[in-house]
């Protein structure tokens, strides 16, 4: 069964030729941290386009230099971007370029060493997060553990409209996320083969956080 058949409309693969081109450079182990950061920002912006495709529009009257026209503008929908620390931070700038009025919440996750369950160690959300359309961002969706914990946290905060934007996803991670949250929409630039024994995505791009922040 293809991924399209398996995941249906709940997963969007943003596979525009420019996205695939940039992703190939991102994967290359020889790409510098500086270029890696720029590419993550650009890919986040492309994903933002797709993730905001369903925003409602309203008619506005505009006076052009020639005449008056009825045009469309995005309704005043309240948005929030929530990066999962730390690698998710790399996607915030690109998303904000597209949605400058969005608020940004931050969510830090750690993995309990005995239960291996992810828990939040830091959470700072906009006060009105429950009434916002929320886009959770993290470049890598591997096992899905952190993403699921983040989605669960935001549901507990009362968020109704939730989307998850990643750059590379493992099929296992997507399956886990879709099963854990029956409403969430997932956006990714690629669905890779799977994970290795260390839970790195294969072929993947290595540790996204280390490559963004140069901490290897
Ligand atoms: N997180 C990463 O940064 N890379 C992977 O391959 C998996 C999880």
Automatic annotation (TrEMBL):
Catalytic activities: UMP + diphosphate = 5-phospho-alpha-D-ribose 1-diphosphate + uracil
Cofactor binding remark: Binds 1 Mg(2+) ion per subunit. The magnesium is bound as Mg-PRPP.
GO biological process per UniProt: UMP salvage; uracil salvage
The protein's annotated pathway: Pyrimidine metabolism; UMP biosynthesis via salvage pathway; UMP from uracil: step 1/1
Cellular-component GO terms for this entry: cytoplasm
The EC number(s) this enzyme carries: 2.4.2.9
Keyword Magnesium among UniProt keywords: yes
Entry keyword set: Allosteric enzyme, Glycosyltransferase, GTP-binding, Magnesium, Nucleotide-binding, Transferase
Xref: InterPro entries: PRTase-like, PRTase_dom, Upp_B, UPRT, UPRTase/APRTase
Activity-regulation annotation: Allosterically activated by GTP.
Residues that hold 5-phospho-alpha-D-ribose 1-diphosphate according to the record: 86, 111, 138-146, 207
Gene3D superfamilies: 3.40.50.2020
All residue ranges annotated as the Phosphoribosyltransferase domain in the record: 13-215
GO molecular function: GTP binding; magnesium ion binding; uracil phosphoribosyltransferase activity
Class in the EC hierarchy, top level: transferase
UniProt key word Glycosyltransferase: yes
Binding site for uracil: 201, 206-208
Cofactor(s) the record lists: Mg(2+)
Summary of the function given for this chain in its UniProt record: Catalyzes the conversion of uracil and 5-phospho-alpha-D-ribose 1-diphosphate (PRPP) to UMP and diphosphate.
Membership in a protein family: Belongs to the UPRTase family.
Protein name: Uracil phosphoribosyltransferase
Organism listed in the record: Berryella intestinalis
Gene assigned in the entry: upp
């Amino acid at each position: 069964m293809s991924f399209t058949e398996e995941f249906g409309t709940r997963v969007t693969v943003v596979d525009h030729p420019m996205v695939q081109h940039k992703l190939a450079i991102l994967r290359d182990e020889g790409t510098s941290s500086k270029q890696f950061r720029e590419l993550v920002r650009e890919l986040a912006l492309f994903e933002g386009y797709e993730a905001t495709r369903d925003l409602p529009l309203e008619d506005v009257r505009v006076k052009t230099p020639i005449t008056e026209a009825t045009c469309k503008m995005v309704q005043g929908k309240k948005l929030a971007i929530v990066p999962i620390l730390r690698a998710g931070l790399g996607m915030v700038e690109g998303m904000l370029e597209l949605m400058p009025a969005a608020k940004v919440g931050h969510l830090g996750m750690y993995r309990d060493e005995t239960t291996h369950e992810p828990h939040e160690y830091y959470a700072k959300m906009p006060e009105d997060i429950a009434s916002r359309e929320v886009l959770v961002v993290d470049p890598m969706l591997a096992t899905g553990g952190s993403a699921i914990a983040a989605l669960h946290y935001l549901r507990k905060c009362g968020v109704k409209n939730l989307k998850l934007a990643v750059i590379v996803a493992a099929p296992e991670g997507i399956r886990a996320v879709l099963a854990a949250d029956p409403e969430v929409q997932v956006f990714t630039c690629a669905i890779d083969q799977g994970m290795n024994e260390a839970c790195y995505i294969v072929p993947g791009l290595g540790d996204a956080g280390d490559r963004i922040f140069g901490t290897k």
